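quick one before i forget lol
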Amino acid sequence: MPSRRFADGEVVMGRWPGSVLYYEVQVTSYDDVSHLYTVKYKDGTELALKESDIRSQSSFKHRKSQSSSSSPSRRSTSRSRSRSPGRPGKGRRRSSSQSREHRDDKKKIIQETSLDLLVLVLFKPSENNTRRYNGEPDSTERNDTSRVSSEQKLKPDLQIERVIEQYSLRPRKEEKKKEEVYSEKKVFETIKTIEKASSKTKDLEFGGRIGTFALIFFLPAAVFYLLLMCKQDDPSLMNFPPPLPSLESLWEARVFGVFLLWFFLQALFYLLPIGKVVEGLPLSNGRKLHYRINGFYAFVLTAAIIGTLLYFQFELHYLYDHFMQFAVSAAAFSMVLSIYLYIRSLKAPQEELAPGGNSGYFIYDFFTGHELNPRIGSFDLKYFCELRPGLMGWVVINLAMLLAEMKIHNQSTPSLSMILVNSFQLLYVVDALWNEEAVLTTMDITHDGFGFMLAFGDLVWVPFVYSLQAFYLVGHPTAISWPVAAAITILNCIGYYIFRSANSQKNNFRRNPGDPKLAYLKFIPTATGKGLLVTGWWGFVRHPNYLGDIIMALAWSLPCGFNHILPYFYVIYFICLLVHREARDEHHCKQKYGLAWERYCQRVPYRIFPYIY
C-alpha cells in the first residue's frame, strides 16, 4: 500500500486538470482506496487530484527560480551574438538559427495565451472568497484581484501583435490563422466541458436513483394511509390495512377547483407591492436574487377573508368532509408542477442548476429538483411554495377541524386539547411568516433545487400531515386537565424559545458578523471567509434549532393522549427527518469548511441532544 506524501491541511501546488498550470491549494482529505487527494483552490473549488499532480511549494518555487534565472541569460546571449558583426558565413547560420528560435518563441507565446484564457474563465474572483468580515480584502487578495483584472483587459490578439512587433516576425499564412482560430475554439470547448463536469452532483442522497424512484410512490401512499387510519374508530397499527375507498370517491372537480382558487389567491397576495424587498445570499456566480417579504401581510389578508366567510356562515368544515379529496387534489397538482419544473430546467443555464440536483439521472434530478431558483419573471416558485399555500393551508385546516369537532360532538366550545394543538401550531406558522427573511439562509433555498421533493412536501405533506393531531382529535376526542395543559404549554414554550433564539443567532451572524450586538459570540474562522459559532446555542449542540423543533413536536402530540401511537407519528417522523438533515449538514459542512469543521466538532461534540447524541 503506497504511503501518503501530503497531510490534511497542508498547502501545496496542484495542477489544474487539462493544463500545465499549478495553483496554490489546500489538502482537505485523502482516499485510501482510489489514492486521490481532495484539494481546495483559493476560489473554493474542490477537485480530486492524483499524487503526481501535486508538488510541494518549496520544490515548485525552487524550480521556478532556476528557470527564471537561466532564461534571461540565454536570451541576452542570443541577442548579443546576433548583433555581432562576425564572419558572413557564420552570420548567416546564426541568422537562420535565430529565426527558428523566434518561431519557437512565438508558438510558445500563443500556447501560453490560450492557457491564460482558460485560467481567466475558470478562476474569476469571488466576492465571498476575497472579502473578510470587515468587508476589505487583504494585501495578497488585492494583488491577485488586480492582476487578474488587468490580464482580462489584454486581448489575445493584442498580445500576439506585440510579440510579432518585438521579434520582427513575418505575417502568418492563411492556413496558420485558421489553425489559431480552431485552437481557440478548442480552448473554449474545453472550458465548457470542465465546468459542466465539475458541477455534476456526485454524492446522491435518499438511496440514489432507486431510493428516489421509490419515494415518489411511497410519500403519497404514506399520506393517504395516515389519513385513512385517522378515520377509523380504532386507529391501531393492528388494523392494517384500513378499508380502501373507491377511486371515484377520491376525486371531485369542485374540490380541485377550490384548491386551485386557494393556490392562485396566495400567488396574488405574493405579487402585491407591499413589504420590503431584500437580497438573498450570493449564488455561485456571485449574483443575488431579490425577494419581497410580505408573507405576514398575506396571512393577515387570508385571515380577513376566512373571517368574512365565517361571518356569512360559510361551512368551513367542508374541508373535513372532503379531506381525502383535497389531499388527492394537492398531490395531483404537485406532480404536474414537478413535471413542469423539470421540463423548464432542461433549458436553464449551467450556473442556475441546483448543486444537489444535477446528477444527470432523470429520476434523481426530478425528485430533488434540477433548477435551483425557478422563476417566472420576478415570481420565485420555490420561495412562494415554501411558506405560502402549504403553511397557511395548515392553519386553515386546523381551524376547519376545530369547527368540525364542535359540530360533530355538539359542543359550544372546542375541547382544551384542540385549543392547545391549534394554538401551538398557529404560533409556529406566525413565527415563520414574521421571520420570513430568515428562510433565505436555509438549505431549501440556497442548496436544494425545486422538484418533486419540495413541491410535494410544501403542498401536500405540510398541510395534510402536520395537521394530523387536529384531524385525529375530531374522531377521537381526548380530555385533559388544566394542570396537564399548563405543563404541555410550558414544554412548548421551552422548545419554541430554543428554536427561535438559536435561529436568530445564526441568521443575524450570517447577515452581519460585525454587528456590535453579537460581540459576545465567539467563532472559528474558516477558509471560505465565514465563521463557525462556538458560543451561545451553537456552542451547546451543533443543531440547537433541531432540538427546539423536536420538543415542540412532542408538545403538539401530547394533547392527543396515549391511547394510540398515530398522533405521535409526527414526532417520530420529525426525529428521522432531522437526523437525516443533520447527517447531510455534517457532510456538507465537512466538505465546505474542512479542518475548521473538525475543530468545531471537537469543541461541540453533541449533535442534537446534549449528552446523548
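fyi The first strand starts at residue 11 and ends at 15.
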